[in-house]
Amino acid sequence: MNFCKLKQIVAASALLWSFPASALHIMLDPGHGGVDTGAVHGPAKEADLVLKIAQRLKTLLEKDSQFQVSLTRVLDKNISLPSRVKMAEEAKADLFVSLHANAAADQRAKGVEFFFQNNLPPDEESLFLASQENQMILNSQELHSISGGDELSKKGDIAAIVEDLQRQNRMMSSLRLTQTLTQVWGNDVTASQATIKQAPFYVISKTSMPSVLIEIGFLTNPREAKRLLNSEYQNDLAQKIYSALLSYKEKIDNHTTLD
Ligand SMILES: [Zn+2]
To answer: Are 108 and 188 contacting, i.e. CB atoms less than 8 angstroms apart?
Structure first.
């Protein structure tokens, strides 16, 4: 290779490296809405709370050119779970972040929980919660049109392997995202406990991109419900999720450069 050619290559690669990493497209999914209020305890209504936090998070992400942001809903409107998945797929979102609020029979239950989907059998408690969050879908005909089981069996072996690798990659990225979220929460000593769980929630099972479902707290815990209704605390939650997304983006960008 002559020197001139080498110089050209170096110049071209310098140009390539100087490009900023592409914006990460986040699809925020405030759960429930409209007739589907989600959990309601006193003045605390899940559908309203998660929409407020999603809007605060959207404002933070919009100010940052490293991110692109979309929402599955901006109004108090009922949107089916398959439609939410479809929106994320059509937008070619890089990450799907679903926001929910918890409810439990035990009033003492508290804290933030992060759910990701993998292939292991979910624990019973998670399964129960998932069935509650999914119940709007159970009678829906749309479920059949999106499941596509027959289509999968027609595909060849190589396609199946590629799909398996993609699933694996998606699962690992989802896990990495949930771990990043718990790290952010873990840095805050005043925060109540944050845990990672797995459950077959419809929206995080059906999306092809890495996804996480965040239960922002328990509406059945009077102290936590009061806190969730406070706008400063809502800002704090949005800020924490934003910090985690920043840290996640940093991790994947660094990983790409190392390759
Ligand atoms: Zn919910």
So the answer is: no
- Between residues 129 and 195, which one has the greater pLDDT? 195
| Mean pLDDT to the nearest integer, 218-247 | 96
> What is the full DSSP assignment across 173-199?
HHHHHHHHHHHHHHT-TTSPPEEEEE-
> Does any domain span residue 59?
yes
**Residue 81 belongs to domain with CATH number:** 3.40.630.40
| 39 alpha carbon – ligand 1 mean position (Å) | 7
In contact, 251 and 219? CB cutoff 8 Å: no
**Which of 206 and 1 is assigned the larger pLDDT?**
206
Q: How far is the CA of 57 from the centre of ligand 1 (A)?
A: 18
Domains identified in the chain, total number: 1
Q: Which residues surround ligand 1, an ion (CB under 5 A)?
A: 31, 38, 100, 133
Residue 8 lies in a domain: no
DSSP secondary structure letter of residue 119: S
Tell me the one-letter amino acid at 104.
A
- Residue 234 covered by a domain: yes
pLDDT of residue 142 exceeding 80, the answer is no
CA 235–ligand 1 middle distance (angstroms): 20
Arithmetic mean of pLDDT, 15-43 = 84
Q: Would residue 58 count as lying in a domain?
A: yes
Query: Rounded to an integer, what distance in angstroms lies between the CA atom of residue 177 and that of residue 207?
Result: 15
- Please report, as a single letter, which amino acid is at residue 202: Y
- Dist. CA 142–CA 30, nearest whole Å: 20
